[in-house]
Amino acid sequence: MRFRPPLQRASLIRRYKRFLADVETVAGETLTLHCPNTGAMTGCADPGSDAWYSTSTNERRKYAHTLEIVGDRDGHLIGINSVRANALVVEALAAGMLPGFPAHARVRREVAIPGQQGRLDLLVGDVYVEVKSVTLKLADSGAFPDAVSVRATRHLDTLARLKRAGQRAALVFCVQHTGIDRVRSADEIDPDYGRALRRAVADGVYVLALRCRVTPSEIAPVGLVPVDLLPPGEERP
Asked: Are strands 136-138 and 141-144 parallel, antiparallel or unpaired?
């Protein structure tokens, strides 16, 4: 996923009202950007952080610029545009990076959920897939979610229900953070989500984490990282 035209560099002033961010450009101009991330953006919205933004040619947009990448205090780059996660997973599927999915399967997006209202992100062949973007780093792991998310827990319960009904179901964590090399549930933030994740895995939902390379010129899938499913308080062997 290459950025065309190239991203422009700036300094983050603040992220506010959930979908807005102010930055100071290299030329000293203050711009208001669209911020396409509904999470808390913990650790990737600190004032003064390096930031990169894209510019749309769509004249109908209220905000022409979109916040894409933020640098954290440790020098890692984070792709904060969660909308891009689905496309990155589709890229990885096409490249054969995600084992367990049917080869060369048709990929449909925003598919209706059998037997209930709502949609899931992808249908890969006969596998229903929900994608979650991971940008939060806690200690030595990436963690999801970065805020309490009833919606994300509901998605897990839906995947588990589909699996119990005989369907194939999977959850893919899309890691857009160069400092993350494993993923776990953020039980200290949303314990309900952690419990739902472990229930879903027990029901047979396939869970994996895709790591992406993040640079100002592109974001690209590079391979898998481990998913830690241990309950809080238990240590890895």
From this structure: antiparallel
Coil, strand, or helix at residue 108? strand
Kindly state the tokens that stand for 124.
Answer: 């890969």
E-state strands within the chain: 8-16, 20-25, 30-34, 50-55, 65-71, 77-79, 107-112, 119-124, 127-134, 136-138, 141-144, 168-175, 183-185, 206-214, 219-225, 227-228
Chain centre distance of CA 237: 28
β-partners of residue 21 are 15, 33
Residue 83 DSSP one-character state: G
Residue matched to tokens 């549930």: 185
Quote the pTM value: 0.93
Phi, psi of 191, deg, nearest 5: -65, -30
pLDDT (tens digit per residue) in 127-154: 999 999 999 999 879 999 999 999 999 9
Secondary structure of 180-212 in HEC code, one letter for each residue: CCCEEECCCCCHHHHHHHHHHHHCCCEEEEEEE
For 58, how many CA atoms within 13 A lie in the half-sphere containing its CB?
Answer: 9
